[in-house]
Amino acid sequence: MRRFQSVPKGEYHARFGPERWPERFQMHRRQGPKSHSRPVSPHGYCRTCARRTAQNMAAHVVQPMFGRYHRGRSQTIPRPILTSPVLITRPKEDAKRLALALEALGPDVRCILAPVMEIVALPFECVDRNFDHLVLTSRHAVSAAAPFRGVPTYCVGKATREAAMAQGHDVRDVFSNADELVANLSAHGAGHAMHLHGRHTRGEIAKRLSLAGLETKSCIVYEQNPRQWSAPERHAILAEVSLIVPLYSPRSASLTAKLLEDFKGDLTLIGLSQACLDAWDGPNPMISHCVDHPDGEAMQQAIASQLRGSPLERGDHRV
Length: 319
Known about the structure:
It is built from 11 helices and 13 strands. By secondary structure, it is α/β, with parallel strands linked by helices. The termini are far apart.
């Protein structure tokens, strides 16, 4: 039986210690405590790796251990897929609904709710109650339309339709945007219509319907007051590395751009219309995209396409 000559402890370490190992095993000594949950030796290298090295010095085979991986020089540690947070600047209730819809797409979706406008109802009195059609282009106008239940109602957007139906209105049709509403209501020709809306609006619906032959009056029933972010909100948002920012109106785009003027990260802008993107005068975005069809569903699909791990990012067009 062959006998090995004993080597003094200090000399053994100098001749066979970790410092003498090839470079691919030295990495385990340096990174072992950070990469592994198993106990480590006083020298800092993984005991499992040390035994593996003793068995096979020529090639270290990557083996799974307790849900983690021993890695060689070319092996990477699996990491969770992270996505940019979505900065939702819509009014509070609209922001909550959008966040719920987006967060349902996957566990990694993160939304930051930071409204740039507050909705405030305004007292109004409609002098002329003799009209045949009621036009609602926002769910914020539905509460003001309570005295006009029973009048045939036409809405823009599914959220507006659902709010109107919940209040007992006779909803005859719903349209994706103002252009579709004007094109369809123009066919009625005769009669009168009333449009309830906020102070800041686009599309000139009453004017266009009147020119088409359907006399339409408008009434302002709510205000969209600018809202400043609190100090904690601002600090948390500016600390992000990247943001996905949906823009639903030119006014909200302008307000958001002013609040993000000190943002240094990457921005992805998704506009409901080209006018929303044209109103942006903040930091230069990395990506700027305008939806093909200006409605809520198209916006959700466009946002989802920028989220890693979402159905659209994986190639599934059903959201």
